[in-house]
């Protein structure tokens, strides 16, 4: 027994008239897939390109922002995937991961140097400094400030952070600590 819902679905999927859809479903004993194959054999619909398949499930077309019935040759997405402007949650997570990797690479290619006078006493990647500031800021910040009062200077070195503006700010902080130290010793 062919239902009106099946006829409408076949009309939408195959872009054919109600009469053609009804006849195809009757010939296939109400089986939607057999009806599509029947229509292919008659030449009323074309076979999917690229080894595609047919499905009556709701899917997400990656080129549209709405749910659609699956059509010939389109990539199948399960209905339970959440979509926002054609992006799945997995593509958003992938972009966040790529951004984090880019930041880590830049942090590893630049260094934070500790100087006493003009001599470099220590150097480590900016990534390490960032992790220390995130997870142990209550220890890291006081140590950096105390180091200023013991005559240490800090600077960034590398292709992305070695510019004069950042290092001038670091030098002015060291100079301010030195001036405060001198004013206390008077």
From TrEMBL:
Residue intervals passing through the bilayer: 126-152
Instruction: Could you list this entry's UniProt keywords, alphabetically sorted.
Output: Membrane, Transmembrane, Transmembrane helix
Q: What superkingdom does the record give? A: Bacteria
What is the protein name stated in its UniProt record?
Ubiquitin
């Amino acid at each position: 027994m062919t239902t009106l819902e099946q006829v409408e679905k076949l009309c939408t999927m195959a872009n054919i008239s109600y009469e053609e859809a009804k006849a195809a479903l009757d010939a296939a004993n109400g089986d939607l897939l057999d009806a599509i194959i029947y229509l292919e054999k008659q030449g009323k619909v074309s076979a999917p390109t690229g080894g595609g398949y047919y499905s009556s499930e709701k899917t997400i077309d990656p080129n549209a922002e709405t749910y659609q019935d699956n059509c010939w040759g389109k990539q199948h997405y399960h209905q339970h995937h959440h979509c926002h402007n054609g992006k799945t949650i997995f593509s958003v997570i992938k972009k966040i991961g790529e951004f984090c990797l880019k930041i880590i690479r830049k942090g590893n290619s630049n260094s934070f140097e500790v100087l006493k006078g003009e001599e470099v006493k220590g150097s480590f990647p900016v990534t390490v400094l960032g992790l220390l500031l995130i997870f142990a800021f209550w220890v890291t910040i006081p140590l950096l400030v105390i180091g200023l009062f013991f005559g240490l200077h800090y600077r960034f070195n590398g292709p992305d952070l070695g510019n004069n503006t950042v290092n001038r700010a670091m030098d002015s902080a060291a100079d301010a600590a030195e001036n405060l130290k001198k004013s206390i010793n008077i």
